[in-house]
Write a structure and sequence with these properties.
38% of the residues lie in helices and 25% in strands. The chain is elongated and about 55 Å long. The N and C termini lie far apart (50 Å). The chain has a single domain (20-207), classed as Alpha-D-Glucose-1,6-Bisphosphate, Chain A, domain 4 (2-Layer Sandwich). Strands 1, 2, 3, 4, 5 and 6 form a 6-stranded antiparallel sheet that branches. The chain has 208 residues and is an alpha+beta fold. The protein contains 7 helices and 6 strands, in the order H-E-H-H-H-H-E-E-E-H-E-E-H. It has helices at residues 12-16, 34-42, 56-61, 69-72, 83-89, 123-126, 164-207; strands at residues 22-30, 93-98, 102-110, 117-119, 135-146, 150-161. Residues 52-58 and 64-71 have low confidence and may be disordered. This is DUF1990 domain-containing protein.
Length: 208
């Protein structure tokens, strides 16, 4: 007699990029409950992200110049840049969310070019998008309980290419880009962890 296997929820990354050719997954244990850790990730201000090797904020500040006039009028320089800002006015899309545990953002592009050719793909079209000459980038932020008072924070980056030629181009690019992506992950994990601890302390102070 065998016991029933526990039901495991499908990861958002498995839905939007089920067969990635390139992946980078990082974890850290956060000294804060899952509620505060998720809120810190979901409300992260990306203009605060800095790294010695890779400054995510500087890359992301380029995006407002590409914001669509039909949504926002003339390009503007935001003082904050959250996931919702990206989704509402850039080529990046909020692909999906399991509230309280996981959310995913994604974009298509020709990432190997000196000036990346970005392309927005809406969530309902993302999984099936297969136009030759592109890669699909999915970044998932996941939070799970780690004991009674801590959380396990995961950042899962996946790249899925649409044709063999793009795979070859991205493979050459990835050799150079991987260390910078790792540095960005480290900074994201550290920043979210700090924000979660601050939220947890603030919540504790209000109930004390």
């Amino acid at each position: 007699m065998t016991q029933d296997q526990p039901q495991v929820p499908e990861l958002l990354g498995d839905g939007f990029a089920p067969h990635p050719q390139f992946t980078l997954v990082r974890h850290t244990v956060v000294d804060a409950p899952i509620k505060e850790t998720y809120a810190a990730a979901r409300n992260l201000d990306l203009t605060d992200i800095h790294s010695g090797l890779f400054t995510t904020a500087e890359r992301l500040r380029e995006l407002p110049a590409r914001w669509r006039g039909r949504r926002h009028g003339p390009p503007r320089q935001p003082t904050r840049l959250t996931v919702d800002d990206l989704d509402s006015g850039s080529d990046w899309a909020l692909l999906g969310e399991h509230p309280g545990t996981e959310f995913a953002v994604g974009v298509a592009g020709k990432f190997w070019r000196p000036l990346i050719a970005w392309r927005r793909v809406e969530p309902e079209e993302f999984a099936d998008f297969a136009e030759p000459g592109y890669g699909k980038l999915v970044i998932t932020f996941g939070v799970r309980p780690y004991g009674a008072h801590r959380s396990l924070l995961t950042i899962d980056t996946r790249v899925q290419l649409t044709d063999p030629q793009s795979w070859l181009k991205f493979r050459r690019y990835w050799r150079v880009a991987r260390p910078f992506t790792q540095a960005a992950h480290t900074t994201l994990l550290r920043t979210i962890s700090q924000g979660a601890r601050e939220r947890s302390l603030a919540a504790y102070s209000r109930t004390d």
